[in-house]
Amino acid sequence: MRMLVEIRDQHESEWAAMRAVADLLGVATPETVRQWVRRAQVDDGARPGITSDESAELKRLRRENAELKRANGILKAASAFFAAELDRPQR
């Protein structure tokens, strides 16, 4: 982002500046630089969207939720199994 800001005035467009930054960094495509810049703008609050921190937290919570659902399913199955065992007549 800083590199783009520094060389933006030396190019005719933002895309040309992104292309130059991509070449300087050895990145295959300027689209990658554009995505980095947009992500930095969202993280800085200059652009609307979900920040990197919020995205990481959302991923963590989704993982945790899936794990809890699996555990709940296991507990329900075990509960049903033991309830069936209690309902069987004893010999």
Automatic annotation (TrEMBL):
SUPFAM superfamilies, per database record: Homeodomain-like (SSF46689)
What InterPro entries does the record tag this protein with?
Homeodomain-like_sf (IPR009057), WH-like_DNA-bd_sf (IPR036388)
The record's keywords, sorted A to Z, are:
Coiled coil
* Record protein name field: Transposase
Superkingdom assignment: Bacteria
Q: Which residues form a coiled coil?
A: 51-78
Q: What organism is the protein native to?
A: Nocardia mangyaensis
